[in-house]
Design goal:
35% of the residues lie in helices and 32% in strands. By secondary structure, the protein is an alpha+beta fold. The chain has one domain: Jelly Rolls, CATH 2.60.120.10. The mean pLDDT is 92.
Length: 155
């Protein structure tokens, strides 16, 4: 069985597949392949955001704590998805929680290392910021839609 390198795994992921090769090589320095079993909590809302994941297989449930209801799933993400964007801006605290719903294989990227790469290369910083802005917008829209569903009053 051939084991793929972090670079190979990045090259296969939708989030960075069209990124220039030299940037993917640099990003691979900040990543590692991980396996997380169903039920493993990747992050909890308001905890320190110090990493993110590029999902290759499995499913992750993005959740939000709602007083009186507990953790409410607002979105489920599968292969090709990105989990985690809160590391990008101070105070680097998770805006949502995430738990593995179906066994997951992913590339986990260290936010401190990625921040360092971004500070060294403004082009990479702009590109990653643009990509994560799209992820952030998608997450916030999903959260809004899910909360409307939960609190909609039936006529």
């Amino acid at each position: 069985m051939t084991t793929l390198s972090v670079f190979d795994l990045l090259a296969l992921h939708d989030f960075v597949t069209d990124m220039p090769v030299h940037w993917m090589h640099r990003l691979s320095w900040a990543g590692r392949p991980v396996y997380r079993a169903a039920g493993h909590r990747l992050c909890r809302e308001d905890g320190p955001a110090d990493r993110f994941w590029l999902v290759h297989s499995g499913t992750v449930a993005i959740d939000l704590f709602v007083p009186g209801r507990g953790d409410v799933t607002i979105e489920r993400l599968g292969p090709g998805s990105v989990v985690g964007w809160s590391w990008l801006l101070p105070p680097c605290r998770w805006r949502f929680g995430a738990v593995v719903a179906e066994d997951m294989r992913a590339v986990e990227l260290d936010a401190v290392r990625v921040h360092k790469l971004m500070s060294e290369d403004p082009g990479l910083a702009r590109d990653l910021s643009r990509r994560f802005l799209a992820v952030t917008g998608d997450r916030l829209a999903a959260a809004r839609h899910r909360l409307v569903e939960l609190y909609a009053v039936a006529p």
